[in-house]
Amino acid sequence: MGAQTHCQELVRQGMDALAADSLMQAEQYFRLAMHEQPADRSNYLLFRYIGQIQEKQGKQQEALESYTAGLNLNPKNLDLMLDRAALYYRMGNEQRALSSYTDVLDIEPDNTEALLMRAHIYSGMHDAKRARNDYNAILANEPLNESAYIGLVLLNDNDNRPREAMEQITALISVYPTHALPYAIRGGMYQRRREYELALHDLSRAIAIEPKNPDFYVSRALLYEEMRKKKLARADTQTALRLGADPHGWLMK
């Protein structure tokens, strides 16, 4: 068996191990394959697989190094660039994430994932103008992109555009009447406006659509608390916990 053929077999075995969720074994095969052909430029792909395995194992710094090693071999590979940008964000390094998503957009200006995440980061930085530009760039190409639409709604609601935000979320619900999240979003908006019955209607509708989503029960429990309906709040709290909700940060409210 030639070196190239043996290397390909190692990669195939690594992919089989990855499909079987045998992460350590998969990484071993990928590293053996790179050892067989250390100068092969296609090793960038193996570095990406190894980085993804390391992320699953909670080895964020090592994953970051693997993605960077892959990008050293293929500096403009968008998949690797997006993987590294997302990891920067998960590690709390928003400035590096922002820079990385911008690098992606320099190559592919309409990349939806990069625009969406950059808008989200800008929004968190209270840079409403730049966030709005990115959300609008997505919607110009994908007018019914639900994630971008919701991001824009929340941005407008927090940026002193409450009427525009409410009109937008209502329009989104008319497009996606069977999607739970827009109802939950609008319910929260009504709650902040102290329109409790409308909020209750929307949160209950979200629960009816996705009865196993613990987040919606958390939201309704907090609404019931605000409405001074302690018994109903307690029932929703118990349901949320039974469905796997994390109690930290809301249970004592």
Task: Give a short synopsis of this structure.
This protein is an all-alpha fold. Helix content is 76%, strand content 0%. The chain is globular, with a radius of gyration of 23 Å.
Keywords:
14 helices, single chain, globular
Walk me through what this model shows:
It is a single chain. With 253 residues, the protein is an all-alpha fold. 76% of the residues lie in helices and 0% in strands. The protein contains 14 helices and no strands. Helix 5 runs antiparallel to helix 6. It is globular. The mean pLDDT is 92.
Mean pLDDT: 92
Estimated share of beta-strand residues: under 5%
In helices, the fraction of residues equals over 70%
State the separation between the terminal residues, measured CA to CA. Answer: 66 Å
Based on CA atoms alone, the radius of gyration comes out at 23 Å
| Low-confidence residue ranges | none
Number of helices in the DSSP assignment: 14
What does the overall shape look like?
A: globular
Structural class by secondary-structure content = mainly alpha
Instruction: Summarize the biggest pleated sheet.
Output: none
Number of strands: 0
SSE string, helices as H and strands as E = HHHHHHHHHHHHHH
